[in-house]
Specification:
- The chain is an alpha+beta fold and about 220 residues long.
- Helices cover about 45% and strands about 20% of the residues.
- The chain is built from 9 helices and 6 strands; from the N terminus they run βββαββαααααβααα.
- It has a 5-stranded mixed barrel.
- β4 and β5 form a beta hairpin.
- The termini are far apart.
- This is Holliday junction branch migration complex subunit RuvA.
Length: about 220
């Protein structure tokens, strides 16, 4: 399995890029957001990758962060969601937006992605709700650093897995991950903590870790 590519961007297509790695060109399919974030042709680029191998197919899918890659893997585990639909969801919402939508049970946001019907959107929310906290906690991980200077490009083995409009601005994903960890340490159930952090971050776009924790605790406080 190829888990990461680092080389030179040779070509950018509508849904993929061609990356030259030591003289070998790899076609890597990416979401709209990932494509938009990549540098121009001739520049150094580094992507986490997920490889799909079937009898009649061998394709690579590329991601800027491990969080984005893990959401792709989980989305593809849902019945009715293939790799292309997963990329459409990630392109419409971004990895943090996907986590927020699932944690809040917001199937409508998932349905906004191209090719996603209401039943599939609801299935995504129901099937992945319990898995959202672990992936959201990966938000503190940094994107893959691009290769610089004259360092040789490389392929690295995969580690085991543990535009339709822009998403609404939210608090920094690292702050969300830290707040989620803090709430979990306080004894809150992962699903409840993830939902509270997602709701708090949507209402406080510029909030840091401490403010997010306070806001989430208010949401988790017993009512009445």
């Amino acid at each position: 399995m190829i888990g990461r590519l680092r080389g030179r961007l040779e070509y950018r297509g509508a849904d993929h890029v061609l990356i030259d790695v030591q003289g070998v060109g790899y076609i890597v399919f990416c979401s709209d957001r990932t494509l938009a974030a990549l540098p121009g042709p001739g520049e150094a680029v580094s992507l986490f990758t997920d490889m799909v191998v079937r009898e009649d197919l061998m394709q690579l899918y590329g991601f800027l962060t491990l969080m984005e890659k893990e959401w792709h893997r989980l989305l593809c585990s849902v019945q009715g969601v293939g790799a292309r639909v997963s990329l459409a969801i990630l392109g419409a919402l971004g990895p943090d937006g996907v986590g927020r939508a699932i944690a809040l049970g917001d199937a409508a946001s998932i349905k906004a992605a191209k090719g996603v019907g209401p039943k599939t959107a609801q299935r995504v929310v129901l099937d992945l709700k319990d898995k959202a906290p672990a992936v959201m906690a990966m938000g503190s991980l940094q994107p893959v650093p691009e290769s610089t200077g004259t360092a040789a490009p490389a392929i690295e083995a995969a580690a085991p897995a543990p535009r339709k409009g822009a998403a609404a601005p939210v608090s920094d994903v690292a702050a969300q991950a830290a707040a989620l960890s803090a709430l979990s340490n306080l004894g809150y159930a992962p699903g409840d903590a993830a939902g509270a952090v997602a709701e708090a971050s949507a209402g406080l776009p510029e909030a840091g870790e401490a403010d997010l924790i306070r806001a989430a605790l208010k949401l988790l406080a017993p009512k009445g």
